[in-house]
Amino acid sequence: MLQSPGFLSRGLIAISAGLVAWSCRRPLITLLLALVLTAASLGGAYKHLRLDTSTEDMLSPELPFRQALIQLRSAFPNLGQTLVVVVKGPGAALADRAAEQLSSWMSARPDLYADVFYPEGDPFLREHGLLYLSPDALAGQIDRLAAAQGLLATLAEEPSLVGLSSVLLLALNSGEAEQLEDLEPVLEQMARTGEALAAGKPALLSWQQVIEGESDSDSLRIILALPALDYASLAPAKAAMEGVQKTARALNLEAQGIEVLLTGKPALRADELRSIRTNIAGIGLLSFALVALILWRGLGSIRAAVSVGLLLVVGLALTAGFATLAVGRLNLLSVAFAVLFIGLSVDYAIHSLLRSSEFRLAGLPQAEAAVAGARVQAPALWLCAISSIVAFLAFLPTDYLGLAELGLISAGGIAIALFLCFTLLPATLLLLRTPPLNFAAGALAARLESSLADRRRAVLVLAALLALAAGVAITNLRFDNDPLSLRDPDSPSVQALVEVMSDPRAVPYRAEVLLPDLAQAEAVAEALRALPEVDSAVTLQSFVPKDQDEKLAQLGDASFLLAPLLFTGPAASEPTAEERQAAVAALIAGLRTAPEQLVGPASGLAAALAIFLQSPDQLPALETALIGDLPSALDTLRAALNAGPFGLQDLPQNLASRYIAADGQALVEIRPLEDLRDPALREDFVEAVLAVAPTAGGDAVTLVAAGQTVIEAFATASLLAFGLVALLVFLVLRRLDDSFAALLPLVLAALYCGGLAVAFGVELNFANVIVLPLLFGLGIDSGLHLVARRREAPDKPLMENATPRAVLVSALTTLASFGALSLSNHPGTASMGQLLLLALACVLAAVFLVLPALIGRPSSSLAARGPES
Fold it and tell me: Positive or negative, the Cα torsion across 347, 353, 359, 364?
């Protein structure tokens, strides 16, 4: 017995057919109205739709960790808007010199930088640097200075190649094992400096490193600045960033081998904005072109392809206008709405086109065929659209605002696309006098349907086994909670950040906690220092060294022993060219007969010096490279040896303001013992810190808490999307067996997609986590159309009508659109496209391989139930 349409279906049919009939009676008015709305939407979006590249703002500000972060940044603005200037040179001395020049210029420009802090160049920290060593480490440093005082004092009086030659020859001939051992790293550094200079590269020996007994490989310097921000600009810190770059060029730092890089949140946001704007435009155009090509070939009509293309253009514009009104901004995820719209909205147009073509081929005029197609197609189209909208809106009840905004905008786009499908599309087709389309599926498709139906048991068992295996594999699916993975790795700011993170002194991920005053901060810090996961917990009190009396006594004794360094006489006169040549020749001879334990570095230095001896006019440059940094290093040493006691009140303001807020609140900076780029170690660290300081915030806490929030949102949205889609399918189809047939491919596709993601090493992240909830809303379309069509004609082969071709062409356009998205060089955008591509491929496999086996041959298929209900 035929089953008549239900009340809901009758209402949807009436609305759809009415819209199509009105548009077909007034096609030109419909087109003109669409174009006017398009112009208005584009104008409004251009003026008012902004782009927000912050990954943190994609999560609800009401979350505890976001509240902690907001409070931290309110008390210490530099925590959220620090511009990090990375100065990288061929050696520590050149990097020091360039960083001091840059920081001095930045400090003189308060209009561009509200605060500038160069820790390694701070006069106070340099003067009191030795007091921060432990008593044992300080004693070791003093012993090294005592051993080197003869060399340093002689060079201080005669800072030239002549003086250097004499002290090195004296040391080489001393025969003292300890002195020769101390000389080895010095010779190695001098050899590297000479070799670099001989190769035409900038070089300057760091005497600070020589004095401290370290290698000259520490060539990274970091300047922290709080830039003036212009929020009227798309790049608020643009002026401050350009100021650094212009000054670096004016100082000719590149010619000195100095590389100046910018990172920190202002630079990362600026580069992210540039990357997204460049990528999304190119990807959008590519997506549109691929979809247009598939439409032309799949529909077999240029006029039909033009009609659908116009729908896409108008729909995109209207969706942008909707985004402007509903949200007012685009984030790193919602910026992909254009590509999603192109890939998804075309489905409704393709099904409408092919279905109306059936009626035209049966003899109906074009307008009547469009109305007839809307009548039989309306329930399925509405159900597909509503299920997609439900999937997109599934993130709204969660705390993941980034995907909630993408979902809201995309849901609006789906509604707009469906409306245009019933209005603009039939009007355009009528105006262009589009001929009916050929929808024959072909003999191959018919044989496939027959073969699958004949082997239905084997197909269903295999599908179940694959689903079981995929379900097991899904347990290994991982979530990457590091937002750095979503950024363009080729952008300058990301490259600079990677450079900083590779420095052993850098702490990529830390935690911070805000306390009412310094006393409470120090008490919490003391508890944190006891944790095995914590390397240090720093407060302002940490910058007042302990055991000052003992250390000052050590420095007093050292000052007496190192008097030649502290009170050097007037420097000797500059040597003549002949004296330099003679000194270098003598040093080369001495190096070639160096003791056995120094043969390696001595022969290297001798070889480098021999090159310059052949070009005597280059000896002054060699002298500058080897001795030029000595006066500065000795000045720093003299200041450090003469340091006096100090307390909290003596600390410089630019340091104190980083740990004590204007209202007296105190900051505890918690540094991990392990490298927290490892997600497991990061979670352990955060768990341990929060157990002691529940209100802690900072990058490490944000990453872990944000990841947990997104995973919860993912689970909630997935369950909500599937539950609502299943309910909608049952309400419209009104039979459990039909609903099961429509939903089974969806479940299988979700399992297969997860299993393949694990097999291909794809991880979930903040961007692609939308795919599974979206799959439930979008994946239902293909199966629903086929099940609904079988209900309409249960006694005919499925492949002998327009629906399978519409499903295939729709799927190909969506694959092309998501494929274009996956080609983006922006990792977040690409990962979303790649997983969507994988998910849709799984949907196609389930729909075209499993569903025909499930519903069987026409003779044994669903009983006649009449039109879609």
Answer: positive
